[in-house]
Specification:
Layout (H helix, E strand, L loop, with lengths): L1 H14 L4 H4 L3 E6 L5 H13 L2 E6 L2 H11 L7 E5 L1 H9 L9 H6 L12 E13 L23 E2 L6 H28 L9 H9 L5 E5 H9 L3 H9 E4 L10 E8 L6 H11 L2 H9 L4 E2 L9 H5 L12 H18 L3
Parallel strand pairs: 1-2, 1-3, 5-6
Antiparallel strand pairs: 3-8, 4-6, 4-7, 4-8, 4-9
The structure holds fe (iii) ion.
């Protein structure tokens, strides 16, 4: 066997000058929980500008986190792109990220939308709003998240599980605003008002409101924007029957969350990963990134004209200025609180 092996090695060495371009082609391995049509252009533009090819693994947020945990130090992943403060916090707590400090990222991404230690950065934002049945409620009935716990709404509220990251982050925001005891009273009031046991995702809650199964639901803006932009007859019907309320405009502001990314601790291509994050913060990438899922760009100077978000009144709403990192910190308390309140 040995001579053959040597021969093979010699052959390979002889061939070497012909292959290095291929062998060392710069690549970036991206684990992404996002998959929207405009993301294709987003990634192609990066490759065109940098020569770095992107290998994408797309899966659900929780699947990606599981995968990274099991791959450990052998993971080929360079960048993790996921959704929601509570998930970013979890990933950070598990030690999945490494700190990144660059002038470009710190100048462009607002401090409230990134980890102070540079482990993750928000690249787009979404708000958690109320969608209501116009035949059953008026906007004045539901001006705040607090209204969801008002006994007058008994049997009228639909919301997905309290353990889902979107609701954990909302609960984390309520804890940040008013402390744990009041936030728990709120969650208990909300649970007492449920029209049905939590089931399905945000889109299912919107459908239930239109169908009259409940009068008001808590949903992320992009789900409702999708319905407003849809040409399907059933979605036109849902849009006609429902309206949107931006909660707490007279108070702390509407709760906002992010899509975000960080460079992974064992990233084999760290430089490419940092360049990719900087690229995501560029004007063009911000437009693609935000619009792909009817979100807002994180970079404030980048303006996106999204007709659905504007029709919803999302042009200049008051957002809760709380730091996303603070929501992450409150996530474990929010989970325990949701369990105590029976928000399953
Ligand atoms: Fe979602």
């Amino acid at each position: 066997m040995r001579p053959i092996r040597l021969l093979t090695a010699a052959l390979a060495a002889a061939l070497l000058p012909a292959v290095p371009a291929l062998a060392q082609e710069p690549v970036l391995n991206l684990y992404s929980a996002r998959h929207y049509q405009t993301d294709e252009a987003l990634y192609d533009n990066f490759t065109r500008a940098t020569g770095i090819r992107i290998n994408r693994i797309e899966a659900g947020d929780d699947q990606l986190l599981e995968r990274l945990k099991s791959e450990g130090a052998n993971s080929p992943a360079d960048v993790l792109l996921i959704v929601d403060a509570s998930r970013l916090y979890n990933a950070q707590q598990q030690g999945l990220f490494q700190p990144v400090r660059t002038v470009a990222l710190e100048a462009r991404i607002p401090a409230s939308m990134r980890d102070p230690g540079g482990e993750w950065f928000g690249f787009s934002s979404r708000a958690r709003v109320l969608v209501y049945n116009k035949a059953r409620l008026k906007t004045a009935d539901i001006p705040t998240y607090e209204s969801l716990a008002d006994p007058r709404l008994k049997g009228k509220v639909c919301v997905r599980s309290g353990s889902h990251p979107y609701n954990l982050s909302l609960t984390a925001a309520m804890i940040e605003r008013q402390g744990e005891a009041k936030a728990e009273a709120w969650a208990r009031g909300l649970v007492a008002n449920l029209a049905r046991a939590p089931k399905g995702g945000d889109s299912d809650q919107i459908k239930a409101v239109a169908a009259g199964e409940c009068d008001v639901a808590v949903v992320n803006t992009y789900y409702y924007a999708r319905i407003l932009r849809s040409t399907k007859a059933e979605d036109r019907d849902i849009a006609a029957k429902t309206g949107v309320v931006w909660p707490d405009q007279g108070g702390a502001g509407t709760h906002v969350n992010i899509s975000g990314a960080g460079v992974l601790r064992h990233a084999p291509h760290r430089d490419a990963a940092v360049r990719f994050l900087e690229y995501l913060a560029s004007d063009d990438a911000q437009r693609y990134f935000a619009d792909g899922n009817n979100e807002w760009p994180a970079v404030k100077s980048v303006v996106v004209k999204n007709p659905a978000l504007e029709a919803m009144g999302g042009g200049d709403f008051k957002a809760d200025p709380v730091a996303i990192s603070a929501l992450g910190r409150n996530t474990p308390a929010a989970q325990k609180l949701a369990d105590r309140a029976g928000w399953r």
